[in-house]
Every structure is written in C-alpha cells, then in structure tokens.
C-alpha cells in the first residue's frame, strides 16, 4: 500500500486491482442468501412441529374401564381421558396453534424476502422480536404440559395425587410425544433467533 | 465538496468544516450509551427478580394440622408442605438460580462495556444468544411451576387430584408470588433481547 504514494501514473493500473475486491461482495452475499434459505427451512420445520404437536395432543383421547357397577348386571364403567380435561393441555394446544400460524405467516414472508435480496435486512429485527415472543409462549406451554404430564406419570404421594398413566397408557404416550415435539419447536425457535442475530452481526461494519 | 477541487490553499480552511460531521458520532454514541445503561439496569432487575423468586419459593414451608390420631390422646397430626415435595418446584428453583447467576455475571460484563465504549458491538450478539437460552429456561420453569400450582389451587376432578391451597394457604401464596415474579423475569429477558436487537440494527448502515 505504501507504494501507492508514488506520484507516477503507474499506480493507476494498480487501482484496477480492486476487481477481486469488487468480486468479494457476491461472495459475501452468498452466505446471506444461504441464511435466508436456512431461515425458510427452519420456519417450515417449526410449522411441521407445531402441527404435529397439536394433532397428537388433540387425538389423545382414550377410554378405559375404570371399574364395574356394584349392582346386578355388573357392567363395566368406562371413563375417557381427553386433553381438555386439563387446563394445562388446553393452554398447550392454544400456544402451539399460535406458533403454527405464526410460522406459516413468517415462512411466506421469509420466502418473499428470498426472492427480493436486500429486503431481509429490514425484516430480521422484526423477525427476532416476534420469534422471541413466540419462543416464550412455546417454552412456557412445553413446561406447563410437561409438568402436569410428569404428575400423571409419577403421581405425587405428598398431596395424594395418584398417577394415571398406568391406566391411560396410550393417552400418556400421546402427551409425551406432543411435549417432545414442542420441545423441538422451542429449539427451532432458538436456532431461528441465533440465525437472525448472526445475519445481523455480519452486516455491521467492523 | 466540489469546491475542494480548487488548487488554492483556501480550501484548506474548508477542510476544517468537517468538525460538525466529526461531532456527529458523539451524538450517535449518546443513545448507544443510554441503551447500555438500560441494559445494566434491566440485568440488575433480572437479578433481583431471580433472587426474590428463589427466596420466596424456598421459604414457602408451611405445617398444618391435617387430622387427628384415631386413638386415645387424639393428638393432632401435622403435615408440612415444602417446595421440594414437587419436582416442578425443584426445577423452578434450579432454573431461577441459573438465571440469577447469569444475570449477575452479565451485569458485571455489561457494566465493564459501559466503561469501554465501542466494546458493546462485539458483546451484543453473544448477549442475545445467552439471553434467549436463559429466556427459554425461565419461561419453561414458570410454565411448569404455574401449571402444578394451578392444580394445587383448583384441583382436577377428572383424575381426582384434590386441591391443596384450601389447607396450605400461605404455602400457595408463596408459590403464586414466586411464579408471578419469575413471569416478570421472563418479560425482563424479552426486553433485554429487544434492546440488544435495537442496538444491533441501529449499527447497520442503511
């Protein structure tokens, strides 16, 4: 660089050297596009997780024999277990439905940003804000459903809450699968925030 | 700027004009410092919330008479309610302790960033990543404890889980206060992420 201080016109051809530097921005652009692609893929995954969690939770109904009538026909007494018997599971379904709807909308928006390069810069801060809000909702719903499901699995002898999973085995399998999938949804939301922050911090001049 | 192409020494004083432009960065710097101050204050608030939530939860022990001996002295039977009778509340204490320790460390780091202006640019992306992780932990712990506390408050007639808050009133008040404070901690974490993203997006050239 010190040689450029010479007063000869020779440095002019050296000024032509920048083409490799000018070629650099496309190289910088490529990973940015990759990150938008990853964003779309993660949002689709979040949508899939939300839908699966809601469907598995809602279809968890199981009817079992819990005893027999004490009088003549001694016919068996059936009792169903449904997700809407617990407010925790209702909250879970509501929260994951919100996450599913949100992921659907943001997938479309993120896909449109993929078609218009440069548009994502304005979009990312908004995405982070809403992603973090939805993460809070999904994480708390996962915790709520998981906490109640754990009591159903193990019971709590201190307050005489008996376990129910020994009777309603399929119901509990549905609940466990649904909570597991929503945990994956939480992790996907965390990854989405990481990706957005990575894209933002790359755009800050050093 | 076109006048600077003149070959007289007069343009030299014009070069002195930039000071207003050079003065602009401190004007840009001022809100950045404000956001770092807000960051430190929010982290202190997060620390206070975490400590209060843990202390209120841990000190929730209450012993009540739950019956009397069926034989001669008919002495009352005492039974304590403690937070560690429920795995959900143990998880809650663990999660809020982690959040408290994290907020203490990041308050110190953020305060040091306040003393060294310009250092925060490198720091913010890391802060966002860890804030989001801690938010996930605190939100899920709040959900877990809240879900179990709700069963204690209302019971669940479908699975014959009886309510306990009619007996252990002070215990339940402690749990409710603790869950409420941890909800505030979750909101503070969301605000911290918002603040960081705002600071990051301000540093991106238009």
In summary, what is this structure?
The first copy, chain A, is mostly helical and 206 residues long.
Describe the overall structure.
Chains A, B: The chain crosses the membrane at residues 40-60, 88-115, 127-153, 173-200. The first copy, chain A, is mainly alpha-helical and 206 residues long. Chain A has one domain (31-202). Chain A is built from five helices and two strands. The first copy, chain A, has helices at 11-15, 19-58, 87-115, 120-154, 169-202; strands at residues 62-68, 76-81. In chain A, strands 1-2 form a two-stranded antiparallel sheet. The longest helix of chain A is centred in the N-terminal third of the chain and has 40 residues, at 19-58. Mean pLDDT of chain A is 84; it is low at 1-32. Chains A and B meet through helix 3, helix 4 and helix 5 of A and helix 3, helix 4 and helix 5 of B.
